[in-house]
Amino acid sequence: MSEVLVDSNVILDVVTEDSHWFEWSAEQLESLSEDPLVINPLIYTEISVGIERIETLDEALLCEYFRWDSLPWQAGFLAGKYFQQYRRARSIRFHLVHCNNGSRGDGNRLVRRGYLERSLSGIQK
Prior knowledge:
Layout: E1 4-6, H1 8-15, H2 22-31, E2 37-39, H3 41-48, H4 54-60, E3 66-68, H5 73-89, H6 97-104, E4 109-111
Parallel strand pairs: 1-2, 1-4, 2-3
Helix pairs in contact: 1-2, 1-3, 5-6
């Protein structure tokens, strides 16, 4: 059994019952529910943009469904730099969580849907 880092878009699809992505995202989470589903502060931050109240967000991300992991400080710094590049370019669709993909360095899985993925090597949790 290996943990699964869950992309913010997958969670938002389910929480907001997105008309296009809800079914696919819900099926992915259901099929992976035997493994630990993991979020981190960057994922939490991205999801918060789509939710009005912190209580609603915390309820949606109950610890019984998701394990809340910390994030290496270096990964947060690099996420900020990539987000800065995104803000300057505005020509690519990019989410902060993808800065974290390579920072895990543990070979565990990621459930996400089709967005640009950036890999950062050498940063260990």
